[in-house]
Amino acid sequence: MDDRGNIQAPGNDLDGVGGNAANADGVSDAMSAIKREGAEQLAAAKEQAQDVLEKVGDEAKSFAADRKDVASDQLGNVADAIASVADTLEVNTSPMVADYARDLADGLKQASNSVKSRNVDEIVGLVQDFGRQQPLAFLGAAALAGFVASRFMLSSAERTRTGERSGSQAVPTLSTSDPEQRSLERGEV
């Protein structure tokens, strides 16, 4: 019996349960569709990220290749300068020191040619292998490179600062032996 006193057939209760089952199937289908769409969007986002990373990696390799060529040329220039010094030393002072300088110049020239003939990936691999085989030498070389880079940066900044001052405030001064005049030249009163 229902609330009004009518007798219900046994199938009436099952109709409500059956309706709920149909609703559950619809929710399940919607959830599956949402999962599929989310998986597709995630795959698309991963693909876009990989494309961007690949592009950035290619640009970084291109930049590194350009810098590699510049470094190789500079290393060759240093080798040539040391060879020139070796020639001067041999003629003027010490043939033994000249031989050492020439050996150093030859080694630098070989390193320059080696860097020039390899691609960036090969050079990175060589550096990594050296770091694994000779960790103390690698750390020493890294510290030395850091020191040289910091000195270069400081001297570049100082030259820039000095150039700005001398360019905008260039005032000719006369040298004098009079102490009072020198004090005035330096701005002391």
Provide tags for this entry.
0% strand, 189 residues, single chain, 5 helices, mainly alpha
How does this model look, in words?
By secondary structure, the protein is mostly helical. The chain has a domain at 119-157. It contains five helices and no strands. The longest helix is centred in the N-terminal third of the chain and has 83 residues, at 10-92. The relative contact order is 0.04.
Concise account of the structure shown:
With 189 residues, the protein is mostly helical.
Average pLDDT metric: 78
Helix and strand element order: HHHHH
- Rg of Cα set: 39 Å
Structural class: mainly alpha
Distance between the termini: 117 Å
Helix residue percentage? over 70%
What form results from the Cα inertia axes? Answer: elongated
Q: In terms of per-residue confidence, which ranges show pLDDT below 50 for 5 or more consecutive residues?
A: 11-18, 170-175
Number of strands: 0
Strand content: under 5%
Largest sheet: none
The number of helical elements comes to 5
Protein name: Nutrient deprivation-induced protein
